[in-house]
Amino acid sequence: MSKTTITEVKAKEILDSRGNPTVRTWISLASGIEGKSSVPSGASTGKHEALELRDGDVSRYLGKGVRKAVSHVVNIIAPKIIGLDALEQEDIDRQLILLDGTPNKRKLGANAILSVSMSIAQAAALATNMPLYAYLGRKKEYTLPVPLINILNGGSHADNNVDIQEFMIVPSGAASYTESIRVGAEIFHHLKSTLKSRGYNTSVGDEGGFAPNLKSNEEALDLILESIQKAGHVPGKDVFLALDVAASEFYMDGKYVFKKSDGAQKTVDQMIAFYINLVERYPIISIEDGFDEDDWEGWKILTDELGKKIQIVGDDIFVTNMDRFKKGVKNGIGNSILIKLNQIGTLTETMNTIKYAQEKEYTAVISHRSGETEDTFIADLSVACDAGQIKTGSLSRSERVAKYNRLMEIEDELGARGHYAGPQPFSRFISQA
Questions:
Q1: Is the pLDDT of residue 91 over 80?
Q2: How many helices (H) and strands (E) does the chain have?
């Protein structure tokens, strides 16, 4: 038995940032080292994602308990992996996939499988006396990601009248990752003051961004631009804007219904015109999920119209799934993929998808979920893979800030071996030139 042999597996039902249950798993090694990880949960979820197993018992947590997933970790997965070497991540992940045996991990639950996969990596990193990013990356130099900071919420993440789910700032003009966080924090606080001065509510949504009732989606952009300028930064030079439209959330009977704001119903062509108009009027560098997860035609038109000007990010349409992503690449859908560990269920599958994206010259944006925990795994993952971009919410709520703080720690650890991505991920786009 080597020091990195798995000797014990434990799991527990804990709470995420929305007060809903999720899975935390501990992996113990022969050396006494213990790695642990907690799985996030999405509110705006794509129907093609791997299955997040819930109990369905309405007498507990309104049916959202995860005792079944915990039981699967302890009673089904543990006996199969105890005695294996934690350094063999790919082999163990492959065995977890085979043990489940379904296309979307519905038998054991992607939440159960992912909690084990992540915890194994954490334990192995500790056992080799390496930070997680170094254990996963094995490089001499690393890239610190540009944060896409969600400072104003709508859609499924807020109880307001704004349809677009996330309005983000992208401080790509900062000199370092740490400076990008300072820039973002200053804009965040100026936005709060701006909202107060207009008599708007300054409570926050699931991801820590402000969630006021506004006159229109465009007003959200105007308020953010004003706040960027008040903070002393230049929109379109120091700081860009990014949107997560989450259009699947308001796609109904072949049309896009802006049900939270003015009730307008837009066709694909009208949505394209809407996006073109926004990009012409505002320094938008990225649009995520501009069309429904199965509206491949709309995605293709959007990519053709704006794909050389801005980043077109696929989340619900790709769901970190290699098969769906390959279909998208083949058909010229988007130029970027959002990466969420719990959409696919293992670390190996996630890293393979990132690698494939980079090979095909798609950008990759590492992402949190609206139901988060204090786990900072994705911060290290973004550095390990040189992803160049990360979105992990606003600069409030500790489960969001924990990831930003971890990245600042990593930047300090790396010193001259770490380089802030800055404008590089967006260099191909005309809007950035």
A1: yes
A2: 14, 17
